[in-house]
Amino acid sequence: MILLVLALLSSGAAMAQQSGSTAGQPQSEAPVAAPVEGAPADGAAADAAAADGAIVDTPVPGTAVPGLLPVLEPSPSQAADTPDYARWEATATRAEEAIQAGRASTVALEELRAQIADWRAQFQSAQDANAARIRTLRQQIDVLGPEPKEGETEAPEIARRRAELNSQLSTAQAPGIRAEEAYRQADGIIREIDRLVRERQADALLELGSSPLNPRHWGPALEAITQSVMTIQSEVASAWGRPAQQREANDNLPRILIFFAIGALLILRSRRWVETLITRLQARPRLGTSVAIFALSLGQVGLPILGIYLLTRIVYALGIVGLRGDAVLSVLPIAALAILGATWIGRMTLSSDLSSRLVDLTPERAWQGRWSATLLGWTYAVWIVLATLAASENYSEPTRAVLNFGVLVVGGLLLFRLGQILANRTRPEPAEEEPSYRDRLLTLLGRGVIAISILAPLLAAVGFGMFSAALLFPTILTLGLLALMGLLQKLVVDIYAVLVRGEDRARDALIPVLIGFALSLAALPVAALIWGARVSDLTELWARFSEGFQIGETRISPTDFVTFVVVFVLGYLATRLVQGTIRNSVLPKTKIDVGGRNAIVAGLGYVGIFLAAVVAITMAGIDLSSLAIVAGALSVGIGFGLQNIVSNFVSGIILLIERPVSEGDWIEVGGTMGYVRAISVRSTRIETFDRTDVIVPNADLISGTVTNYTLGNLIGRVIVPVGVAYGTDTRKVEKVLQEIVQAHPMVLANPRPGVLFQGFGADSMDFEIRAILRDVNFLLPTKSELNHAIAKRFAEEGIEIPFAQRDVWLRNPEVLQPGGGGAPAGAPPAEEEQASKPEEGTARPEGEMSSDVADEIARPSALTAAPDTPDPAGEKSQ
């Protein structure tokens, strides 16, 4: 709704610009009134008038209008479903002649374009005529086989039938071909009209007019505006002086008084009422308060507008409005909307409440920004009124330049101030962090606004008044649109916070971001209208979009795409529903293992998605045969660039069908051991015993070596090595180990577990327990429990478990004995050595070692471990 308000303001600006630009046109360029349906027209005179470009301002009902009236015939949508090609040919011929003459006004060309656009829409619909019949005939012809080559013959019956079918096919295709030809002709005419209108708009913007700084134009401009005011006053006085009008006013006096009281009350008091309610809500903040404040704040715009509308109704009810007064009064609500809307946007964007302020400004800068926005609204409203008055009074070009120049200068100054507030709102210190992306964007926007605010008045001073207005006022409206989009996005976040009951969750959620993106897309057409785009330009873009694109003999339109998406989504949801039902209700009642269940569910998913895609393509009317060349090219690309992906995909299907590996299996592949947690289209996820996930391509599971410990069953073998000291009774050890392993509940009795005497080790006699477990997943816990049982039973039986022992040999043990051996070469004298030792009873400095220890460390050969070499001195120390 708010975007429609901005569109209304932009249309008011366009109307004012168009009025200003057409006010100075010669009489031959005046707009053409709407055609009168059923009005007769002389064909020869109409053709001549169309060729000459003659335009009549006001048609008289019931009479023929020369010029373009034969072109502006009733809309073809009023006719039958089949296009009237004879009437279209006449319309197209006259339209082409009028375009070639180039004398028709812009308004007349726009009306002509609307008529041709209706024809084009009807031709587009007619292109699909007999589509089902054509498809059937082609299938029948295909059944007959290919046509015989030159020199070959076929059966007479088949040849005759082929000729009949080809004749019927040509007849069925004729309406579509005719409609497509007419569609192309209408499309070409529309393009020519758009080009002509754009050229006129560009010429009007770049036209160099009179300079408003020329003092010669000031007097006539002041005289013209004074004369307009006096004319409106005289119209009001003349109308009020009529007795019949006074009697009508007296009769409507009660209604007039009621409307006046309500309107005045809404204009004068409604804003204060709304502010009081908002203040009460702000005094007791809670979740959803910001949404209520936003809704109430709209009353500051809507209620005064309603009051102004009631006052204008009062003026019309009094009957005191003349032609010029009616022109001004008709744009008065739009001007009031500009003022109130700018004030509202300024207060909401730069609110005095820091928490609800969209732009981070100081209180003083925020106050200046609010006042600048309000004054810009007043400037825009004055410009709309002046442009409307200039069009109704048919001011001269110098007079309009002088009147608009003052408004443009004031608007430029206000816009310059607003640009300064945006560009200089933050000055980060060197120690502070870099400004955010949003801050840099606002700074860049402020600098652009400053440049436009300087350029626009300069262009107006030179004489480019239309270009200046087309640059300044769209900038003002664009700033308002950007501020409005920020407010709407904040509103979306606040509403979502109410729904999810949490502001933090709403601020980080994805749904408000998507809604904000949709709002931004919806604002693009409004921005295009603000910057001078015509409504016909937007409808043309939509027509191009609706037309779609051609692939072979199949045309794919947005409708087909939407149909494809909807059908595919429904098929996908149905597939997931069937998968969930089978997984939770059917498969648990069967004897299929978990891996088999998962394979069945995954296979159903693949088949369901494939069927959904096929049905969606069929429902959308896409002919897959026309994509054969594209599919062939894709096959080549897949063969070269995507062969690994295709290999993994095919391997995934093989895994689901053959099931050498299933979900939940304990496998080892490529040095990775763990449990299979998921088998997807491209890869398999393995969870290791360290609780880390390893992604293995499916092709590695098919082409490589894989060890599956749980394929088919959970039975597995455990091996427990045991060593006993030499001298132990080996039969006793064997008996004890056999009793231990047979007593464990996880060990199967058949096959019988065994105890093997493996041999004589370096430090022990080695035995080994070998047993088959019921569930190999308990291999490590079982092995641990058996070791505990062995240690306990060996302690009870007195069986020793040996451990490795080592002997340490000293090559020169004399250095460790006091006074033994001579001092090594290079040792210090005894006096110095004694002096270097600390006195007895004194503390040695921290980190300092004794000289004896230092000497021993300095001799690395003093202490050597030699377990197998005899001591040269014949002494051994352990």
Q: How would you portray this structure in words?
A:
This protein is of the alpha+beta class and 878 residues long. Helix content is 63%, strand content 6%. It contains 28 helices and 10 strands. It has a 5-stranded antiparallel β-sheet. Strands 8-10-9 form a 3-stranded antiparallel β-sheet, covered by helices on one side. Strand 3 and strand 4 form a beta hairpin. The N and C termini lie far apart (98 Å). The N terminus and C terminus are likely disordered.
Salient structural properties:
878 residues; alpha+beta; three-stranded antiparallel sheet; 6% strand; extended; disordered N terminus; disordered C terminus
Instruction: Identify the strand order in the major beta sheet.
Output: 6-5-4-3-7
Distance between the termini: 98 Å
How would you name the oligomeric state of the polypeptide chains in this document? single chain
| Contiguous uncertain segments of 5+ residues | 1-8, 18-80, 427-431, 822-878
Mean pLDDT metric: 79
Brief overview:
With 878 residues, this protein is of the alpha+beta class.
Q: Which SSEs are present, and which pair or pack?
A:
Blueprint: H1 2-22, H2 43-52, H3 85-101, H4 106-126, H5 131-143, H6 156-205, H7 218-240, H8 243-251, H9 253-283, H10 289-297, H11 299-318, H12 323-349, H13 363-393, H14 397-423, H15 437-462, H16 465-500, H17 503-507, H18 511-530, H19 535-547, E1 549-551, E2 554-556, H20 558-586, H21 594-620, H22 628-641, H23 643-658, E3 666-669, E4 672-679, E5 683-688, E6 693-697, H24 698-703, E7 706-708, E8 716-724, H25 730-743, E9 754-760, E10 765-773, H26 779-797, H27 830-836, H28 851-858
Antiparallel strand pairs: 1-2, 3-4, 3-7, 4-5, 5-6, 8-10, 9-10
Helix pairs in contact: 1-12, 1-13, 1-16, 1-18, 2-3, 3-4, 3-6, 4-6, 5-6, 7-14, 9-10, 9-11, 11-12, 12-13, 12-16, 13-14, 14-15, 14-16, 15-16, 16-18, 20-21, 21-23, 25-26
